Amino acid sequence: MPSAKSSGKGKVGGKVKGEDTKSTSRSTRAGLQFPVSRIHRMLRKSNISKRIGSGAPVYLAAVLEYLSAEILELAGNAARDNKKRRINPRHLQLAIRNDEELSKLLGDVIISEGGVVPYINPALLPAKSKKQSLDSQEV
After folding, report:
1. Which residues contact 54 (CB under 8 A, 6 or more apart)?
2. Do 117 and 93 contact (CB within 8 A), yes or no?
3. What DSSP state is assigned to residue 47?
4. Measured between alpha carbons, how far is 57 from 45 in angstroms, rounded to an integer?
């Protein structure tokens, strides 16, 4: 006859009442900062498909987090180059347009207040005279 504590179906398992039963978010489980549950909800409401797998919002959140971190790092470097502590749209524009892959990805995007990337065609620059170039080589 089984004892009063066990149900007679093998090992006793389950949660103990004294343990911490706080739930962890899917973002925390995936090690991300972007909200996995919110992205899942938006995918379901966007009528992309009738069914959305459980891994799709995690993957999408990871991609979005990586892209935003990459852009913010480059924009922070551009801000530091201009001796600023705050990132503004100009720094975002310089960061995106100076990076080949981001420029290709965001080629059709217009950033408000971003300005243009400075470029002067070499044909428009004043030509060096041969005497100046020879004097610089003699030293």
Report:
1. 40
2. yes
3. T
4. 13
Report pLDDT digits (tens) over 104-121.
999 999 999 999 999 999
pTM of the model: 0.73
Distance CA 49, CA 72 (A): 32
For residue 135, which phi and psi values (nearest 5 degrees)? -65, -35
Q: Show the DSSP H helices in the chain as ranges.
A: 26-30, 36-45, 56-81, 89-98, 100-105, 130-138
Q: What is the dihedral of CA 14, 20, 22, 28, to 10 degrees?
A: -100
Angle at 99 between CA 103 and CA 30, to 5 degrees: 90
Q: How high is the pLDDT of residue 58?
A: 97
**Which position has the token pair 């090992």?**
11
Classified as helix, coil or strand, 74 is: helix
**Residues in the chain, overall count:** 139
